[in-house]
Amino acid sequence: QTESARELRRNFYCDLCSKGYDRITQLEAHENGYDHQHRKRMKEMKQITRNPTAAVRNSRAEKK
């Protein structure tokens, strides 16, 4: 890959899954996919088991 291609992938990057994409549509498709949603739920579950009250506060803050 060229340097510009690597730079482009950094623009459309999913931090949760550590995956980079060439186009925003690919990133959006990934974010709506099973793998990303599963990782997102697992991360939330880990937060809840570590500190239940903080997880509730975080979810309320995200809804605003």
UniProtKB/TrEMBL annotation:
InterPro entries: Znf_C2H2_jaz, Znf_C2H2_sf, Znf_C2H2_type. It comes from the Eukaryota. Keywords: Metal-binding, Zinc, Zinc-finger. Residues 33-64 are annotated as: Disordered. GO terms for molecular function: zinc ion binding. Residues 12-41 form the C2H2-type domain. This is C2H2-type domain-containing protein. It comes from Aureobasidium melanogenum (strain CBS 110374) (Aureobasidium pullulans var. melanogenum).
